[in-house]
Amino acid sequence: MKFFGNVTNGAKLMKSVHVFNKRIKDIEAAKARGDYEEERRIIAEATGIWVNNVIKLLDMHINIKGRENIPEGPCVFFSNHQSYADIPTFFKACEGKQIGFIAKDSLAKAPYFGKWIRNIRGIFITRGDTRESLKSFRTGVDYLKDGFSLVIFPEGTRSQGGPMREFKAGSFKLATKAKVPVVPVTINGSYHLVEETGIITKGVHIDIVIHPAIPTAGMERSEMAKLHETVEATVRTTLEELQKHDDQPDLRPDKRAKSSK
Q1: Are 161 and 191 in contact (CB under 8 A)?
Q2: Stated pTM of the model
């Protein structure tokens, strides 16, 4: 992976995660005594400090719409997934609220990042292992019932600026089982940060739209069966509208070469 092709910025980005190290003991202490409200507060504070440092470091420009649609209590955000940059984009959009991410198990061993994904109540999914996936599912339901919020990318992988993939229906069972609101989210432009050139690129513009929450408590089975289609349609329609107005220049070297002729 060429994520850290820009050595200086890559090193600074890795180092930025140290902000969590200062709060891990506080997070673990609150968790141990069952003070989940305090745990969520500390997590939100730490992630807020981290994301603002990252935004300053990378000169990111994040345009946020729909913050008023973020529920007060626990919920599950379902978003399209363009880039690793979707993570800081979400933290900024939900600043002040604890959110954890559903991540692939390979990230559990990632230096620095694997540890803090766990500490913010994120969950690792082992693809292809039904038993482990079921354990993760149960953990996610428990987290939601305890008041923690999660983010899921139901495409299953990054589109990296390509077409948005279909949303997987199974991922929505986490929200319906816990009976918490589902919040559709649309992200556009995040792939410009890394995936477009293969190295970290400063000054990118990212749009994130938080759509109205969909309550799942009391939802009819017929509605649950089509929930993934409903959310996907909302996200896809908005993404297409945003892409019509996406005037950010293509930063890929091959495209730059052609445009300069």
Answers
A1: yes
A2: 0.89
Instruction: Report the 10 Å Cβ neighbour count for 197.
Output: 19
Q: How far apart are CA 132 and CA 203, in angstroms?
A: 40
The answer to whether residues 94 and 73 touch, using CB atoms and an 8 Å cutoff, is: no
Candidate from 51-65, 106-120, 196-210 with smallest mean pLDDT: 106-120
**What is the sign of the dihedral through the CA atoms of 84, 88, 94 and 98?**
positive
Which SS3 state, helix, strand or coil, does residue 193 take? coil
Best CA proximity match to 158, nearest among 102, 105, 86: 86
For residue 252, give both structure tokens.
């890929």
Confidence of residue 161 (pLDDT cuts 50, 70, 90): confident
Question: At residue 154, what are phi and psi to the nearest 5 degrees?
Answer: -70, 0
Positive or negative torsion for Cα 85, 106, 3, 19:
positive
Element (H, E) at 252: none
Give dist(CA 88, CA 189) in Å, integer: 13
Q: Find the range with the poorest average confidence among 1-5, 114-118, 232-236.
A: 1-5
Mean pLDDT of 236-247: 89
Amino acid 252 reads R
Distance (Å, whole) CA 36 – CA 49: 20
At 38, which amino acid appears? E
